[in-house]
């Protein structure tokens, strides 16, 4: 715990403790002017199998004034799995943003303690996030953010031609299927990660937490060949006028998955991808249209380990909508 004496009283910067939940949710509502359910918060931070990463700043009376938090995930880099995290819910009460200690504001000091506690070679080697423009500028100043490859919103509203998929089919997948097919899913996750070079490793443990246990609803479909062998996985959200491809496994068969999804639902398919990625090359023959996302967010990242070159990491980090829709 770090104790700070300021002109406005004494403050403490410390990691999350059981019982802080309601104070955090109240601060979230005040800062962002929206509600977050306790169930969603618990899933994000307490039920995450990769850990809980929250640093808080509070007054001596227990009033919470700031938070720096992230959601840890497995990162694949050079044939090894490391820990990384998506920064989320970084916030500070408006009236406490302008003062601190030695010209360092309370939020900046909270961030520094967060970095000290959770980042480094044997902790988080890379932090990433998708803030709006104003928060990105703040993150650039306080967190050292740099932009990664920008987001492109990909939309497929009609296929250029009736591409054949006779040797493949889509079937629904549930929790028991993921557990049963864990060896094949792990193999697919590693194959994708090697091709993409630097990304969240979508291993079975991650898939179970991220999509099965999440309070939000997802449709999970498996791509199988004519022999019944698993070749891919796609995570969808079906809306009235469009379908969102939130995430996928099996980039070698992304084209076949998209064709079958389009034929099954007869809805435009929307995705988020980093610009100039392998996935973008695969989608061009399908007649995909690429635009800036309607939601004005900026992809950014920061390396915390000298073994992961920061510029290289930002140029190669691959993400999907599944890495972005946690907030």
Tell me what you see in this structure.
The chain has helices at residues 21-32, 38-45, 106-118, 133-142, 175-180, 182-196, 204-212, 254-265, 278-283, 310-316, and strands at 2-6, 9-15, 53-59, 64-77, 80-92, 100-101, 104-105, 124-129, 146-147, 151-156, 168-172, 198-200, 219-225, 230-238, 243-249, 269-274, 289-291, 300-303, 317-318. The model has no long low-confidence stretch (mean pLDDT 90). The strands form 3 sheets. Strands 1, 2, 3, 4, 5, 8, 9, 12, 18 and 19 form a 10-stranded mixed β-sheet that branches. A 7-stranded mixed β-sheet has the order 11-13-14-15-16-10-17. Strands 6-7 form a two-stranded antiparallel sheet. By secondary structure, it is α+β, with helices and mostly antiparallel strands. The two termini are 28 Å apart. Helices cover 30% and strands 34% of the residues. It contains 10 helices and 19 strands.
Structural class comes to alpha+beta
Q: Could you give a short account of the major beta sheet?
A: 10 strands, mixed
Strand content: 25-35%
Order of helices and strands: EEHHEEEEEHEHEEEHHEHEEEHEHEEHE
Average pLDDT figure = 90
End-to-end span in angstroms?
A: 28 Å
* Low-confidence regions: none
What is the count of DSSP helices, taking H or I runs of 4+ residues?
Answer: 10
From the alpha carbons, calculate the radius of gyration and give it in angstroms.
21 Å
Specify the overall morphology.
elongated
The helix content, as a percent range, equals: 25-40%
Total number of beta strands:
19
């Amino acid at each position: 715990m770090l104790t700070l004496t300021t002109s406005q009283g004494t403050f403490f910067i410390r990691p999350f403790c059981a019982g802080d939940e309601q104070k955090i949710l109240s601060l979230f509502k005040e800062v962002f002017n929206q509600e977050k359910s306790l169930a969603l918060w618990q899933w994000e931070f307490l039920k995450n199998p990769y850990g809980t990463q929250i640093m808080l700043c509070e007054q001596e009376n227990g009033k919470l004034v700031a938070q720096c938090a992230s959601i840890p995930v497995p990162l694949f880099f050079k044939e090894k799995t490391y820990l990384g995290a998506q920064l989320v819910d970084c916030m500070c009460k408006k009236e406490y943003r302008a003062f601190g200690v030695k010209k360092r504001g309370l939020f900046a000091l909270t961030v520094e303690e967060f970095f000290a506690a959770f980042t480094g070679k044997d902790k988080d080697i890379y932090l990433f996030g998708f803030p709006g423009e104003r928060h990105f500028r703040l993150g650039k100043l306080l967190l050292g953010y740099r932009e990664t490859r920008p987001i492109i919103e990909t939309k497929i509203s009609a296929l250029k031609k009736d591409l054949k998929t006779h040797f493949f089919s889509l079937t629904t997948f549930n929790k028991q299927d993921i557990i049963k097919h864990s060896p094949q899913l792990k193999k697919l996750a590693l194959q994708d990660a090697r091709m993409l070079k630097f990304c969240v490793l979508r291993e079975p443990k991650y898939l179970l937490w991220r999509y099965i246990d999440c309070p939000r609803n997802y449709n999970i479909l498996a791509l199988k060949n004519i022999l019944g062998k698993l070749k891919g996985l796609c995570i969808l959200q079906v809306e009235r006028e469009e379908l969102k491809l939130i995430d996928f496994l099996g980039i070698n068969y992304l084209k076949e998955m998209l064709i079958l999804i389009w034929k099954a639902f007869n809805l435009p398919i929307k995705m988020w991808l980093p610009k100039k990625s392998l996935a973008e090359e695969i989608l061009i023959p399908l007649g995909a249209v690429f635009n800036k996302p309607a939601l004005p967010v900026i992809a950014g990242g920061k390396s915390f380990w000298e073994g992961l070159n920061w510029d290289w990491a930002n140029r190669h980090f691959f993400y999907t909508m599944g890495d972005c829709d946690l907030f």
